[in-house]
Amino acid sequence: MTRQQKLTFGFIAGLLVLGYFAFRSPASQQDFSSQQEPTQAPLAKQTSENSKTENKKSDSRSMHRAAASEEASDDVNEAPTTMSERHSIQMAKHDLSPIKRDVSVGELRDSQIVQGSWKLVTSVFAIPRAQVSEDDRSMMVGELSGFALFESGRAGVQEDAFTTERALVVYDTRLQVFGVMTGTLIVFLRSGASMEALVQDHGLRVLNAFPETGTYYVTSREQPFNLSQLKNSLERDSRINNVEIEIVSRQYGKR
Hints:
Layout: H1 3-77, H2 83-92, E1 108-109, E2 118-128, E3 142-144, E4 147-151, E5 167-172, E6 177-189, H3 195-202, E7 204-210, E8 215-220, H4 227-236, E9 240-249, E10 253-254
Antiparallel strand pairs: 1-2, 2-4, 2-5, 3-4, 5-6, 6-8, 6-9, 7-8, 9-10
């Protein structure tokens, strides 16, 4: 075979190969597309179903939020209980009350001696139980921590003329407990201060002493005396670190 014949044969063979691939390419692409369609269709169907499920969940959450919002709105629209109503209810339901009758909010007032939630009970006073005679026991309206309670009547109670024979009764509106203000002051001395000098300067009577901690339970040597004034005088003394009023109650003991 000559060189010219070889070139001619090669050229013809190349044309045949190109024509074969040109004829087969569209059919191959169509077959491939038909093979991919079954896979894409289920995927599209699953995506649609997932979208519907999410929409249902979103609707359910919206319904729950709407219901919760309505309940909260109902709670807000309820009429609030006034302060005086709450106090009346609390005191009426106080099962541990030492007083045999109900005490109304109108019988309470702010005290010059104690602040915060402690209020003075103006209708009742206290006497140490040991000082009550047999004849007077029938007039008792209650008992609290070793004290007998009596109606104060028209005389009321006197904060500026305190005596141990008419100790003051108080009520804690926060803790809902009654207590007796005994007339005793708890004094906490500063380091190096002399209690003897303090007693002389303020006319005190020491009831109990704990020198190791600088703590002393004191009251006035005179009866009656102004308890609020004595407390203020001790608080201004630079030798004293702190002063507290003793209040005794059945639930909490000394305060």
